[in-house]
């Protein structure tokens, strides 16, 4: 059995267990219309999905699709979930010092409050000039 989220054409949202992907979609318990499956918020294993980290969240107007309402709501929801998760699991919080600069040479490695500026600039420019590295290596600058 798999737990899915459903939404009917009238906008009622509910969860239902169905046997397999090929089963018929259930009727809405509120109005009886056939509901459509929505992507589930739950993982199959029952573990909470930590979602994107703070560093992966948009920081600029352009990254939010120029302030698109749906996009903003989506990220706001993810951020709120992330906050709750980090309350429970502080080890997920990562670096939460305020970001002072995140553009130009700091696009890939933001300058944060408390960073030594000369070091940060050197790291940022060396990161920006390495053309082969596309991954985000955040773990290397712990401590
Ligand atoms: Zn309904």
Automatic annotation (TrEMBL):
Residues 39-59, 113-143 are annotated as: Disordered. Residues 1-40 form the Putative regulatory protein FmdB zinc ribbon domain. Residues 132-143 have a biased composition (Basic and acidic residues). SMART domains: CxxC_CXXC_SSSS (SM00834). Transmembrane segments: none annotated. It comes from the Bacteria. InterPro entries: Regulatory_FmdB_Zinc_ribbon. This is FmdB family regulatory protein. It comes from Brooklawnia cerclae. The lineage of its organism: Bacteria, Bacillati, Actinomycetota, Actinomycetes, Propionibacteriales.
């Amino acid at each position: 059995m798999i737990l899915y989220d459903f939404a009917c054409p009238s906008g009622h949202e509910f969860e239902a267990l169905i046997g397999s992907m090929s089963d018929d979609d259930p009727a809405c318990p509120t109005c009886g219309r056939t509901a459509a499956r929505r992507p589930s918020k739950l993982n199959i294993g029952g573990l909470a999905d930590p979602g994107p980290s703070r560093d992966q969240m948009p920081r600029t107007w352009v990254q939010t699709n120029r302030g698109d309402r749906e996009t903003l709501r989506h990220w706001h929801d993810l951020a709120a979930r992330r906050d709750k998760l980090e309350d429970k699991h502080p080890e997920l919080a990562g670096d939460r010092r305020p970001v002072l600069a995140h553009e130009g040479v700091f696009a890939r490695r933001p300058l944060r409050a408390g960073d030594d500026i000369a070091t940060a600039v050197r790291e940022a420019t060396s990161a920006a000039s390495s053309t082969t590295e596309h991954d985000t290596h955040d773990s290397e600058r712990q401590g």
